[in-house]
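Weekly sync, protein design subgroup
Attendees: M.S., D.O., the rotation student, P.L. (late)

Item 1: inverse folding check
M.S. brought a backbone from last month's batch and wanted to see whether the design step gives back something sensible before we order anything. D.O. pointed out we never logged the input encoding, so this time it goes straight into the notes. Structure tokens as presented (312 positions):
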């Protein structure tokens, strides 16, 4: 197989390229300077020339706060760009397929009555919250989330052989991410302050890449949304605590640093983040297998990779 990866040099795209190559498939992953997802003609030309069996869109405007004041660019990449790729793949007219990567930020994370009537469900916690399913109502709270949601809809409408994979908080060896930021700040400041009121599941780029490869293995897949994440559910504070402890174990940090729990309100960020963004992955597991991993195990692997790369 030959897989076209848009956003191949980003955090997820870099890992996906490696996973596809490790699977023994070929990759065509242009830089954004070579193929701009916002340039429809260029994209159509590339999809025709690349002769890929499937395409994965890892490209996005991911600067969540900046998107609030850069709405036109965020929409151009996350919504119109995603649509451009879907139209281009559809226009190939063959059996080519497309996976669009999306985000947990399409949900509000606020639970006032959203799941009322659903309390017999075992996965509902004491506060009436449970991981989001694909058909739960979306209510993005940020420009980033809104434009990604628009992209999802446009991809599914434009391309008959497309699926959308929503994922949670990503970390990996490439690009900018929370793990690397924590490691750098721990060294620079000797202490950390991290929010403890946002709940989610940190998902390694490695494990998402394995999930995408599992989807690509199948000759066909349903034209629908999927959720993919990690377990167990945690908070950024708890995640940071594990990062620091494990970084000490693997020798990336010399000693533990104090970590203070803070609140989202205290951070005063420009964009609103969902306080709860757990994703229910059972649809994915039914269709593609049990690939949801424990992020604490994945974290150890990723920290090892960051160490072998010379640090964050
Ligand atoms: N990061 C997270 O925590 C997170 C969480 C949930 C979902 N997601 C989703 O996961 C996917 C991958 O995210 P990521 O963290 O890997 O993002 P990332 O590291 O910011 O990478 C995004 C990639 O998109 C490319 N890109 C941006 N504009 C482009 C354009 N006009 N044409 C072509 N390529 C363009 C970038 O290339 P340049 O650098 O050259 O511009 C970069 O390679 C995205 O769909 C994102 O929405 C991310």
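Designed sequence read out in the meeting:
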């Amino acid at each position: 197989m030959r897989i076209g990866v848009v956003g191949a040099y980003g955090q997820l795209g870099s890992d996906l390229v490696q996973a596809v190559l490790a699977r023994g498939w070929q990759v065509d992953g242009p830089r954004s300077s070579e193929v701009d997802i916002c340039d429809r003609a260029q994209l159509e030309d590339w999809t025709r020339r690349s002769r890929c069996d499937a395409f994965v869109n890892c490209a996005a405007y991911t600067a969540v706060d900046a998107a609030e004041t850069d709405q036109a660019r965020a929409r151009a990449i996350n919504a119109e760009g995603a649509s451009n790729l879907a139209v281009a793949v559809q226009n190939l007219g063959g059996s080519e397929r497309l996976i669009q990567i999306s985000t947990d930020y399409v949900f509000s994370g606020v639970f006032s009555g959203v799941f009322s009537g659903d309390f017999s469900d075992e996965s509902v916690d004491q506060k009436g919250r449970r991981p989001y399913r694909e058909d739960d109502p979306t209510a993005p709270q940020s420009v980033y989330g809104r434009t990604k949601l628009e992209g999802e809809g446009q991809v599914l409408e434009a391309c008959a052989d497309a699926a959308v994979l929503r994922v949670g908080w990503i970390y990996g060896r490439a690009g900018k991410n929370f793990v690397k930021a924590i490691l750098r700040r721990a060294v620079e400041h000797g202490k950390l302050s991290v929010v403890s009121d946002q709940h989610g599941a940190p998902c390694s780029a490695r494990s998402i890449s394995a999930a995408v490869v599992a989807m690509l293995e199948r000759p066909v897949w349903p034209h629908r949304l999927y959720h993919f994440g990690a377990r167990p559910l945690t908070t950024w504070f708890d995640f940071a605590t594990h990062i620091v402890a494990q970084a000490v174990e693997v020798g990336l940090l010399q000693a533990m640093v104090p970590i203070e729990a803070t609140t989202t309100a205290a951070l005063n960020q420009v964009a609103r983040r969902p306080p709860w963004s757990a994703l229910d992955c059972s649809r994915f597991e039914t269709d593609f297998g049990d690939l949801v991993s424990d992020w604490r195990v994945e974290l150890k692997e990723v920290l090892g990779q960051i160490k072998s790369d010379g640090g964050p």
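Discussion: The chain has one domain: 2-177+203-231+278-293. The longest strand covers residues 97-103.
Action: P.L. to compare against the previous round before Friday.
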